[in-house]
Amino acid sequence: MERNNLYPIFLKTSQLHILIVGGGYVAEEKLHFLLKSSPDARVTMVAPFFRPETSRIADRHQVRRIKEPYHPEHLDGQHLVIATTDDPQVNLQVYNDCRQRHLLVNVADNPPLCDFYMGGIVTKGHVKVAISTNGKSPTTAKRLRQFFEAILPEDISLLVQNLHAYRKTLGGSFEDKVVKMNEITRPLVEDQT
Ligand SMILES: C[C@@]1(CC(=O)O)c2cc3[nH]c(cc4nc(cc5[nH]c(cc(n2)[C@H]1CCC(=O)O)[C@@](C)(CC(=O)O)[C@@H]5CCC(=O)O)C(CC(=O)O)=C4CCC(=O)O)c(CCC(=O)O)c3CC(=O)O
Ligand SMILES: NC(=O)C1=CN([C@@H]2O[C@H](COP(=O)(O)OP(=O)(O)OC[C@H]3O[C@@H](n4cnc5c(N)ncnc54)[C@H](O)[C@@H]3O)[C@@H](O)[C@H]2O)C=CC1
After folding, report:
1. Which of 17, 40, 67, 153 gives 20 to 30 Å between its CA and that of 126?
2. What molecular functions are annotated in GO for this chain (predicted)?
């Protein structure tokens, strides 16, 4: 059976510059979920036209907007790029320009032109779960996100905070701490071990 070989990483979006090319529906969806997970992300958008709702979301989060057609210079200083225009030629140009500069790029409606995919994301305090279907079914990613949003308890973050505090009280070597941390958390998975 085919399996998902993608490697998820958790980006520090407050230290990175993300460019969204396009200002339509797809741009708005990508922006919405990016900011829902990472309200402190440093985002720039470039497009000749922005949807009013996109502008409202952008204003709330200090998203920089450049009201002009895409130009390769817009890639200067960016780390990650998401192309969402309704012009496949422009999306392809963004992809090629990014590859040339070794920038990670996502062409939202064209999985083969993606170095990375956006995922379904659940955040409960310090805890974050990211979901991918290998680009096969974004709707399933959305449904799984809704499922985990409902079943993960709100106070799961308290558990993480308490364990963080407890670890600080432990003496002994690194190895001793590993043993103690594993002992105290064993009941969480008791039935599955
Ligand atoms: C490959 C990927 C690239 C990328 O965008 O990164 C991609 C691609 C495409 N999306 C399409 C459509 C839809 N996308 C959604 C929703 C989401 N899409 C997201 C991610 C991804 N979408 C990446 C793969 C993720 C994975 O691995 O699973 C989510 C998880 C995250 C986010 O957007 O931030 C977000 C849910 C967020 C949430 O709710 O939590 C819905 C559901 C809905 O709106 O109800 C629909 C309508 C249903 C449908 O049409 O299937 C199409 C078809 C376009 C066409 O017809 O051409 C393509 C292109 C194609 O598949 O070929
Ligand atoms: N809206 C949706 O749910 C879906 C859209 N798609 C596809 O995704 C693409 C984008 O869709 P939408 O966001 O709905 O389109 P849209 O028409 O809402 O937005 C297109 C955006 O691209 C911008 N744009 C056009 N040329 C540009 C350029 N040279 N430089 C920078 N920006 C430029 C426009 O100003 C506009 O902001 C289309 O190809 C569409 O077929 C696919 C599946 C679903």
Report:
1. 17
2. ferrochelatase activity; precorrin-2 dehydrogenase activity
